[in-house]
């Protein structure tokens, strides 16, 4: 196995966290693959023409995605704003410089209600940042073809489609139908696929521009990538003359992203999957048979080739709630962060895709210790209201 799985070095500044929650911005996203790390160090002292570096990125992104062109961005969130802006301004530099004032240009962006998610920030705000105006299609749990069609008109600049575990996973218009309806009205379709493995399928289903995160499954530096129709990609890149400046990506991240993409092509995906499976099996065996604990292997909700272990906790039989178990894991040493988006329903998940060598054993051991403590009545029930508002409180209480 590559040194990708060496444990991080603990020092006074970096206190290691075992990440079994997924690729979380709040934990530093993902393990940056060695090839990307080396590329970033390599380019750091050099001057290069940034347009040619982005043209190089375009070639590699096009090769992997099958798109006409591509461009590296600071993040997927930046990619969303740049893509929306591209659909508003086209390749007109005066319009680019005028944003977020869209003048009399069409600036409406149709999006299904069930797709208006929060990925650490609101997707609606990523649209508004450009001067774009979200036009909501349907209700959270149901959007129909005629509602999308009715939302499109002379003021429409684009339609945005989100593929994610963050969005409502039923009652939505499938991408292929969504794209057909939009294209019949000449409206370009932007797909936010930030956290998806599939680098070709969304373009195949009719997307005009697709956005991925560079620092999720790809294991790149903090970055994003956009790919799609050449005209739109170029218009998105041109936003660096305007609102994109505050979302600048540096040479090291562009070069690191290129390296991560090339590493992705060479990656032993089956080997990684098997390794993840071994971790899941270990945790499954550790937990099965424990009273009040139901572990089960659970496939990724958007079809990424990745399973997680879902752990349901019966608080009465276990002696503590799922939230208390997760809190105890996080307050130990090393800190272990589980996937707890739906914790109030009494379950959490263990995600195996960001493990360093040996992490799975530590997690298994800590699970046993924490569940033993629960049985002895030694776990503290966390304040769920505090936890619910935790992402904001963490900023409010920041000790900087
Ligand atoms: C993570 C995520 C984003 C944001 O990606 P960044 O690269 O961290 O900006 C946007 N949309 C979805 C669906 C995501 O999962």
From TrEMBL:
Alphabetized UniProt keyword annotations: Aminotransferase, Plasmid, Pyridoxal phosphate, Transferase
A Pfam family the protein falls into: SelA
Record-listed N6-(pyridoxal phosphate)lysine modification sites: 216
Gene Ontology MF terms: L-seryl-tRNA(Sec) selenium transferase activity; transaminase activity
Reported cofactor(s): pyridoxal 5'-phosphate
Superkingdom per UniProt: Bacteria
Family from the record: Belongs to the SelA family.
Protein's recorded name: Aminotransferase class V-fold PLP-dependent enzyme
Record organism: Qingshengfaniella alkalisoli
């Amino acid at each position: 196995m590559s040194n990708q799985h060496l444990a991080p070095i603990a020092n006074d500044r970096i206190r290691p966290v075992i990440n079994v929650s997924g690729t979380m911005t709040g934990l530093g996203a993902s393990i940056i693959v060695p090839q990307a790390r080396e590329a970033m160090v390599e380019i750091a002292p050099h001057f290069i023409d940034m347009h040619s570096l982005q043209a190089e990125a375009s070639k590699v992104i096009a090769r992997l995605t099958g798109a006409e062109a591509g461009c590296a961005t600071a993040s997927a969130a930046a990619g969303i704003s740049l893509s929306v802006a591209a659909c508003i301004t086209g390749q007109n530099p005066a319009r680019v410089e005028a944003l977020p004032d869209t003048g009399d240009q069409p600036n409406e962006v149709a999006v299904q209600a069930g797709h208006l998610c929060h990925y650490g920030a609101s997707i609606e705000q990523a649209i508004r940042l450009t001067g774009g105006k979200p036009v909501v299609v349907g209700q959270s749990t149901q959007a129909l073809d005629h509602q999308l069609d009715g939302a499109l008109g002379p003021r429409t600049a684009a339609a945005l489609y989100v593929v994610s575990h963050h969005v409502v996973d039923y009652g939505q218009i499938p991408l292929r139908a969504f794209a057909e309806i939009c294209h019949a009205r000449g409206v370009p379709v932007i797909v936010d696929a930030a956290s998806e493995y599939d680098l070709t399928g969304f373009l195949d289903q009719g997307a005009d521009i697709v956005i991925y995160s560079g620092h999720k499954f790809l294991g790149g530096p903090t970055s994003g990538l956009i790919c799609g129709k050449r005209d739109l990609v170029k218009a998105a890149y041109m936003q660096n003359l305007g609102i994109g400046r505050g979302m600048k990506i540096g040479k090291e991240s562009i070069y690191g992203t290129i390296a991560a993409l090339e590493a992705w092509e060479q990656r032993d995906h089956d080997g990684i999957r098997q390794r993840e499976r071994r971790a899941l099996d270990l945790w499954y065996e550790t937990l099965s048979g424990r009273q009040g604990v139901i572990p089960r292997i659970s496939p990724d909700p958007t079809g990424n080739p990745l399973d997680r272990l879902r752990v349901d906790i019966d608080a009465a039989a276990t002696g503590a709630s799922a939230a208390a178990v997760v809190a105890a894991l996080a307050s130990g040493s090393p800190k272990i962060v589980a996937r707890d988006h739906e914790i109030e329903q009494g379950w959490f998940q263990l995600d195996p895709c960001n493990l360093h060598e040996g992490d799975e054993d530590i997690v298994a051991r800590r699970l046993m210790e924490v569940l033993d403590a629960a049985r002895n009545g030694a776990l503290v029930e966390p304040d769920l209201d505090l936890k619910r508002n935790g992402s904001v409180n963490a900023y409010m209480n920041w000790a900087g």
